[in-house]
Hints:
Blueprint: E1 9-17, H1 22-42, E2 45-53, H2 58-72, E3 79-84, H3 91-99, E4 106-110, E5 114-116, H4 120-129, E6 134-142, E7 148-149, H5 158-165, H6 169-174, H7 176-182, E8 193-194, E9 203-207, H8 208-213, H9 226-234, E10 239-250, H10 260-282, E11 304-308, H11 318-332, E12 336-343, E13 350-355, E14 358-364, H12 373-381, H13 383-397, E15 402-407, H14 413-423, E16 427-431, H15 437-441, H16 450-464, E17 468-471, H17 474-482, E18 491-493, H18 510-513, E19 520-525, H19 535-543, E20 550-555, H20 561-571, E21 576-579, H21 584-593, E22 596-600, H22 613-619, E23 624-628, H23 633-640, E24 644-648, H24 652-664, H25 666-683, H26 686-694
Helix pairs in contact: 11-26, 13-14, 14-16, 19-24, 22-25
Amino acid sequence: MMNHESSEIRIGASLVVYRPDFITLGRTLQALEIAGMEVRKNYAAHLQLTVVDNSDDSSWFELVNTWMKEQTASLTSWSVHLMRSPCNLGYGRGNNLVIEKTDSDYHIVINPDLFVEPDSLVQAIRFMERSPDVGLLVPAVFGEDGERHYLCKRKPTLFTLFLRSFAPAWISAYFQSALDLYEMRDRNYDEVIDGVEFPSGCFMFFRTAVLKRLKGFDPEYFMYFEDADIGQRMLKIARIVYVPDVKVIHKWGRGTHHSFRLRLETIKSALIYWKKHTLLQSRPPKTKPEFPSHPIGPVRPVTRILILVVYYLPSIMSSAKLIDDLAREFRRRGHEVIVAAPDEAVKKAYEVTEEGGIQVLRVKAGEIKSASRWLRAWREITLSSVMWRKGKSFFMQNPCDLIVYYSPTIFFGALVSRLKRLYLCPSYLILRDIFPQWAVDTGVLTQGNLIHRFFKKKEKLNYDAADVIGVQSPANLNYFSEHGLNEKYRLEVLYNWTTLTEDGLQPGAFRKRMGLEGKVVFFYGGNIGVAQDMDNIIRLADNLRDEPDAFFLLVGDGSEVPRLKSAIVSKGLANIAIHGAVGQRDYLSMLSEFDVGLISLNRNLKTQNFPGKMLGYMYHSMPILASINPGNDLKEILEDKQAGLVCLNGEDNLFAEYARRLLKDEEYRRFLGRNARSLLESTFSVSRAAGQILSHFNRPH
């Protein structure tokens, strides 16, 4: 996302014409002008429209050129340019002439018979600015009569293509249910739809950087199916989202139905598409398995959802709160939910309770979090077998329609694979921790040794068990791309989430009980391990030992706690303390009392991480002070929304400078805190996360 205080948004648009109807084209340009004026009212923006004349007759170009000169005077919001193609290149290649040269932030591909509603471009920009992992936005399309056009489509089959383009009406009517499914009529077109496989080419709002990675449209298509093709390629690197607030009117001619030549073009393009995306993909590849299709269709509608996680309430771990919020949102949407987790506190092989309408299975297992490093590793390695062996009777008696599992850990893969075979259902992996890569980055593991190879095998098994993998930031996609895995797995960005309201939270008077009245408390809550590099916070406390009003409070457990406590004593620091883990309600009460939320990440990490603790800070309108690893998207997001101050781990002087500013300027803390809360509401809501997960699997009954 851009910092619009220092630069304007650049919007490019390409409009390809061939012997156009000037009356209709005039309406298209006027609608763009009105929409452009609305953009200018809301943003500092530069709008560039290029009309590409594909006419194969020089006299037509002269007509278009003369007409465009007359129109330009009324198009004040746009910088308008007319380009002549060397011949009739076809629709995709005509647009590519513009795409190749544009340096915009967003690029619009628009038909010459399409009329944009006045606020649609503003709505599109707003959505794309807060959704950096979306590569293509498609609009709600209506006819001039006000009837909705159902243009969000699933990946076509030869049969559906025959029904739509060539079958007699009585045959199409007989197979109407198949056509309805193809046109995604089972989805609510008044809500955002994620994962559109076949977007309509009449209006496409691209993130230009992603569009250029794809090198625009495939020039092999002359007309038709270039939109389906770019949709399939786009879904491998970014999301495609239908946004109902973006509305357009399409003067739809269905030329294919009236022209024998256009029918031949349809057949030709369909065969190209079929060969590229179906025939070739159906053959077993020599070096890597086929990329899974999207969305994933279960054998039955999603009624009951099983969630697997290592930590669940009352654990203080951020994953426990994340999963509880997600489970409650699934239930609010009408699904039955089972949460299954290991728990050292249960007395029997397993215990089942109902907690707020959620069925919770707790399987007896050894303590994981506070165990020594090697004991923890062993307990996680055996996690799938322990969960299955002790919980088998429950799993057998409670079949589910969807499995959602959370990583860390990487050791649920075997259990998920077994349950998928048992239930004949799909699965979604919420991937928050790319292990063992981070352990290599921090020096905990040695690349290529026997232990590392073992963990890599388990990591692969964990990924292989998933139909869809949701990583937590756009930068995490780079890990899969750099390791040649982006085409093997169906990947998307699924941001962390939280509920936007918490009932029954009571102040706990922690500030008074801890003797911190009159202090500005810099608070850290969560895991205290190698990946967090909490020496970073100790150095910060050391640098601020001359500030009597500053105090650093670290709350949590982890492998580094004993060593860090010794370091605090040896340095003689009185302005920092480590407090043991507390219950979830006490933790949230703590957040409500303290002043600044701390984030620290080991600078050697190559994979990127959005710590779950950040959501608690945002919920309570706490400004965020973060010291992170290079390349982490967190810096861009927090700074762009002015929700916190971020530096790289190792920039100790800057870290201390930021801390002093927050210490001394209460109004600035409030300003950043308000922005943090706004960022939470726009990007990190549980409703958004649940809807995104379910969008891959919901099907009609």
